[in-house]
Amino acid sequence: METYDLVILNGQTIDLATGKIALQDLFIRGGKFVKIETSGSSEPYKADKTLDALGTYILPGFWDNHTHFRGGDSLIHENKDLLPLFLANGITTVRDAGGDLTSSVMQWKKEIAAGTLDGPTIYTSGPKIDGPDGTWAGSLEVVTDEDISKALDSLETLQTDFVKLYDSRISGDAYLKTLKETDKRGLITSGHMPFTVTLKETVDAGIDAIEHLYYIMKGCSAVEAEVTQMLINQEIGFWQAMPLLKEGYKTSTAQATFALLKNKNVFVVPTLHIGATLSYLDEVDHKNDPYLKYMGKGIIKTYQGRINGALNSSEKARKDRKELDHFFGTLTKSLNDAGVKLLAGSDSGAFNSYTYPGISLHKELEAMVQTGMTPLEALKTSAYHGAQYLKKDQLSGSIEIGKQADVVLLEANPLEDIRNTQKINSVIQNSKVYNKDQLKAMLEGLAK
């Protein structure tokens, strides 16, 4: 008689590839699916633990494909406290897109994998790559070819999961050279893009994912070449370029860009929820946000910079930003319709005001559906595409034999209403079962 660590009975499993739902029993051993059967059809077996999932919908644990652990040594503890927030929201994997707490993040990764710390599996870029005196603390500065080699050597030594490029001070030349070098080394990349290069140059240099839609919009504009030259000449800055690029949006240019992204298998991370949150900081009072009580005082203090920026900006700048936010919703739908693979990412973490770890991923999925995407299309952008992007799709991202048994059990069908992703019954991660009461207690324990 076969023995299993955990058997989940009578669950309605959702196949994210097709959207089909099947009533199945899932047999788990060593944290992996070893047998999947139609409910009630299995031979007799022994199980250390059995979970009756009758009435629930089972899908792979959610992935938040853009988060940050950062803020310096004084915020290490507050960042660590964010880990259970992800699990409580059914997020079993996060992609940490760069920060200055790499040694701590690496330690948490080990402890989570060993089962001694509650938290999601973390895939991290470690420190970002940027130019001299970059915006974010801990960034690796590159100017010369030698700098690029050293930076990538250090990331490979750290055994980071991908390379994140940032655009605050890096030159267009160093940026493209870095991408070409990562391509040679077989490293996965994602990043922002300096506006002194074109989107096609970036894609041709080998980028694997583009964070945020500013850069996509640039490649969809008929005036991209002229605006790029203006930025090279330092006649305008990033935010002055936005209205020009938006006004220059041309459907034929956009379709050619979408085809390029699709053919080169470049993923795009729209980050719609944070875009909306930051665009309306001047209008929305967040004092009574239910998730604010889970944030440490140090992290809340980091929110002030963006708040001040929003309140001190001109009427025109505020209006432009809101119009851009609306436009990005339309752009997201167009990208999806063209077959470009999207990644759901919250951009949550210190400095990103009122974009809370955990719940913000669900808000991102909602924002995607609001653009006109179907709930299934939105769900694919989390675990399914997330695993593909990091080349972990043989390991996770779907409910299949041999894959990691990280799953979330929902009390209502998310294919009917995307908000049902928040109706969490249980989360299974790393062979641990967290039931509804445990998840609730986890949250309560974090309240400040």
What ranges have pLDDT less than 50 throughout 5 or more consecutive residues? Answer: none
CATH class of the largest domain: Alpha Beta
CATH superfamily of the largest domain: Metal-dependent hydrolases
Beta content? 15-25%
Indicate the structural class.
Answer: alpha/beta
Rg is 22 Å
Shape: globular
Total strand segments: 17
Pfam family, one: Amidohydro_1
Protein name: Amidohydrolase family protein
Domain Amidohydrolase-related: 57-428
Organism: Sediminicola luteus
Structural features, described:
Residues 57-428 form the Amidohydrolase-related domain. Pfam families: Amidohydro_1. This is Amidohydrolase family protein. InterPro entries: Amidohydro-rel, Metal-dep_hydrolase_composite, Metal_Hydrolase, Metallo-dep_Hydrolase. The chain is α/β, with parallel strands linked by helices and 448 residues long. It has two domains: 2-59 and 398-446, Roll (Urease, subunit C, domain 1); 62-389, Alpha-Beta Barrel (TIM Barrel), CATH 3.20.20.140. Helix content is 40%, strand content 19%. The chain has 17 helices and 17 strands. The strands form four sheets. Strands 1, 2, 3, 4, 5, 15, 16 and 17 form an eight-stranded mixed sheet that branches. Helix 4 (145-158) crosses helix 5. The chain is globular and about 75 Å long. The mean pLDDT is 97.
Helices and strands in order, then pairings?
Layout: E1 2-14, E2 21-29, E3 32-38, E4 45-52, E5 57-60, E6 62-67, H1 76-80, H2 83-88, E7 91-96, H3 102-114, E8 121-124, E9 129-130, E10 140-141, H4 145-158, E11 163-165, H5 172-185, E12 189-191, H6 199-205, E13 209-211, H7 214-219, H8 224-232, H9 238-247, H10 251-263, E14 267-269, H11 272-279, H12 297-302, H13 304-312, H14 315-337, H15 359-370, H16 375-389, E15 407-410, E16 424-429, E17 432-435, H17 436-446
Helix pairs in contact: 4-5, 11-14, 15-16
InterPro entries: Amidohydro-rel, Metal-dep_hydrolase_composite, Metal_Hydrolase, Metallo-dep_Hydrolase
Protein name: Amidohydrolase family protein
Domain Amidohydrolase-related: 57-428
